[in-house]
């Protein structure tokens, strides 16, 4: 029995947004629920919504979750936001983790640094630089065979006139 606009009708199946209880169609508790087997459980949300838990239909999944086929799925550990097509592909990390090639790491790997202008993201140092400074964007340690230039802005193979290579730096 389905009551529609004050009119009772016999139906073989309850319509979307309703469930059958002793032959009577009752409305789903969650207003954005499309299919509910009972009052406390939603198994599918209306288009434009994603199922979170077993009874919440949300426009947007909460942080650390992404919508996959209308269901909020948890991202990889450490991810604040991830790609819904690939849950282990992070877009943002939970601080203090930093993003490096879609992964959340404790610190940036060699040749990368978390720069002040791009917090939470590992960006590359200058060419041939192993370790650079996040504040000044200068190189601190260069690859073997290279030296930190006098201004610290690059790694050079030859220090140039008036400079000598000493402890990995042009002085």
Work out the oligomeric state of the chains in this entry: single chain
The end-to-end distance, rounded to whole angstroms, is: 90 Å
The outline comes out as rod-shaped
Beta-strand content estimate: 35-45%
Parts with pLDDT < 50 across at least 5 consecutive residues = none
The value of Rg in angstroms is 29 Å
Strand order of the largest sheet: 1-2
- How are helices and strands ordered from N to C? EEEEEEEEEEEEEEEEEEEEEE
Report the structural category. Answer: mainly beta
Described by strand count, sense and barrel closure, the largest sheet is: 2 strands, antiparallel
Q: What is the number of helices?
A: 0
Helix content: under 10%
Features:
mainly beta, single chain, 43% strand, two-stranded antiparallel ribbon, 171 residues, two-stranded antiparallel sheet
What topology emerges from the helices and strands here?
Layout: E1 2-4, E2 7-9, E3 18-21, E4 24-27, E5 33-35, E6 44-45, E7 50-52, E8 56-58, E9 65-68, E10 71-74, E11 79-83, E12 86-93, E13 98-100, E14 103-105, E15 112-114, E16 122-124, E17 129-132, E18 139-142, E19 147-148, E20 155-156, E21 165-166, E22 169-170
Antiparallel strand pairs: 1-2, 3-4, 5-6, 7-8, 9-10, 11-12, 13-14, 15-16, 17-18, 19-20, 21-22
């Amino acid at each position: 029995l389905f009551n529609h606009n004050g009119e009772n009708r016999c139906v073989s199946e309850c319509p979307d947004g309703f469930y059958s209880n002793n032959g009577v169609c009752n409305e789903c508790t969650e207003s954005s629920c499309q299919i509910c087997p009972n009052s406390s459980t939603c198994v599918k949300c209306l288009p434009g919504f994603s199922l979170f838990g077993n009874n919440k239909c949300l426009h947007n999944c909460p942080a650390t979750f992404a919508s996959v086929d209308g269901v909020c799925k948890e991202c990889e550990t450490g991810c604040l936001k991830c790609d819904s097509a690939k849950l282990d592909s992070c877009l943002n990390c939970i601080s203090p983790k930093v993003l490096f090639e879609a992964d959340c790491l404790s610190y940036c790997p060699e040749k990368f640094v978390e720069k002040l202008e791009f917090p939470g993201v590992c960006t590359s140092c200058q060419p041939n630089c192993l370790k650079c400074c996040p504040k000044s964007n200068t190189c601190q340690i260069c690859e073997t065979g290279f030296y930190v230039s006098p201004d610290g802005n690059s790694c050079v193979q030859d220090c140039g006139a008036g400079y000598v290579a000493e402890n990995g730096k042009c002085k």
